[in-house]
Design a protein that fits this description.
Layout (H helix, E strand, L loop, with lengths): L2 H7 L6 E2 L5 H12 L10 E6 L2 H6 L12 E8 L5 H18 L3 E2 L4 H5 L1 H8 L5 E12 L11 H4 L11
Antiparallel strand pairs: 1-5, 2-3, 3-5, 4-5
Helix pairs in contact: 1-4, 2-4
């Protein structure tokens, strides 16, 4: 799949059907996250590939869709880094595109995860000094999901100066 097709077609999916996600695909997804830009190239992130059914079910505390996913990737950040959240976000963005390009579906789980971060860290064995920044459940979409409507490009794009529109 072309990069722009992936960008234009990726949607947030919260209802999953079971699907086999080979470890090779999961490693490709994590590699896409590993290759994301990082402030000062510090790379303060690590990844947990989750395939254990009981663990996925337990992580449903962060968002119900996680317990129905076939796999997930957790992004663990070094909270001492200045750019830990930005770096985790860059990784998540690239992994979401990789997930879609490989024919799977996902959703960015962060806000609801942070509310139960301590419990989710315990489930995954994440050390206390690390942040469990983002969780990406992976599976097959239970139904077709179109990308959420976006603002028209002409309405949000300026040329040279704010307020000046493109010719």
């Amino acid at each position: 799949m072309d990069l722009f097709e992936a960008i234009e077609g990726r949607a947030s999916v919260r209802r999953f059907e079971p699907v086999d996600v080979p470890m090779e695909d999961l490693q490709r997804i994590v590699d896409a996250g590993r290759r994301a830009p990082s402030g000062k190239n510090v790379q303060p992130r690590e990844f947990i590939i989750i395939t254990d059914r009981d663990t996925l079910t337990a992580l449903g505390i962060s968002q119900g869709s996680v317990k129905h996913a076939s796999a997930a990737v957790a992004i663990v950040s070094d909270g001492a880094s200045t750019y830990w959240l930005e770096d985790a976000s860059a990784s998540a963005t690239q992994m979401l595109l990789a997930i879609h390009a490989l024919g799977y579906a996902s959703v960015w789980v962060e806000g609801t995860l942070l509310k139960v971060e301590d419990e989710a860290k315990r489930i995954l064995g994440v050390p206390a000094d690390k942040r469990l920044a983002i969780l990406l459940p992976i599976g097959a979409s239970a139904a077709p999901v179109p990308q959420a409507e976006k603002h028209p490009l002409a309405d949000i794009t300026h040329h040279n100066r704010y307020g000046e529109r493109l010719p």
